[in-house]
Amino acid sequence: MKKLLILSALVLACLSCTGQSAEQTVQTGIEVLRQQNFQCLQGKRVGLCTNPTGIDSHLRTTIDILNEAPDVNLVALYGPEHGVRGNIHAGDKVGNEIDPKTGIPMYSLYGATRKPTKEMMDEIDVMVYDIQDIGCRSFTYISTMGMLMEACAEYGKELVVLDRPNPLGGLKIEGNLAEDGYISFVSQFKIPYLYGLTCGELALLLNGEQMLGEPCQLTVVPMKGWTRDMLWNDTRLPWVASSPHIPSGETSYFYPATGIFGELGYFSIGVGYTLPFQLIGADWISADSLAIALTALQVPGVIFRPIYYKPYYSVGQGQQYQGVQIYFTDFEKAPVSDLQFLIVQELMRMYPDKDVFALCNQQRFGMFDKVCGTNYIRENFGKRYRWDDVRDYWYKDVDAFRELSTKYYLYQ
What we know:
The protein is α/β, with parallel strands linked by helices. 30% of the residues lie in helices and 14% in strands. The strands form three sheets. Strands 3-4-2-1-5-6-9 form a seven-stranded mixed sheet, with helices on both faces. Strands 10-12-11 form a three-stranded antiparallel sheet, with helices on one face. It has a two-stranded antiparallel ribbon with strand order 7-8. The relative contact order is 0.14.
């Protein structure tokens, strides 16, 4: 297993901006499709669900590639959260409009309509999905993919998924399955929080296990050169921000490390500063004391560094905050999603008067539970703020899901 060197997010973000490397080993689904002369799309009316992450290794968009491909008739574009061109802020509704560059109609799948309607589907023979995901259940692009699968099954259309790497690799699985009553657009499927599959493999699993009801006519165009032990940097691929607060591929490693507690708006998690998802801080924390307490836990694969900062916007805007920044020394060994719970565990031990669930906006409990896929974690962790009280529940489904998912592996 490749080891992830100690991260300096600023340095690595700069490295990821340099573009295509001569040492690139991975070809994504759109590049493989082009090598196949777009055979599965020829002579068909094509719809494309994509966003700015739909690119080849030279940063050409999948929109342009398909629009210019011979015998491919691209007739409609479909936009997930943030829109086809990535010009919509997180959570804002996406509208229907005309793409100014190509003149092709763009339909919103993140507004009043999240599953394509019959009218949207009548225009096409085949739907293509090409979006770079980050390997976490609560990131909404896979939910959009599931809605496409349901619509294709309902209206008798083909779905072609152009596969892309899981930035977290294909081995990391953490979290309980989403449970009945907590299925939502941030937990659309009964899969773990970190599910260890590419989007193509996930589509095959959803279809094969009939998790969405009637299966659709599905084709996955696999990558070349990707293996399950690859993290994002190993792919040598350029990164385009998958959302405004995922500016680099490395940010994907941290999103599941703090994002659950970020839903409460009680702590700063670096959103609004230069290190989104890479830290937890507040104006009442002693950075040095917290770093010492967390270091004493000897969490494998992780170092906690004291940090002092002033958020530019969002939680703590303009205030002097302290906390810890997370560094991964061995991502394979690190219990990524555990980290936020361990940090809160130590904070509640050190500052019992700052009870997070008592003092936060309790209207946010619903979103917290949806992201966790259950209310069990919040209700039982909040009793004593000890991660050991709920850790077994968080991991109870991992082994069974790993065994199930191996049936749908496209890569070793």
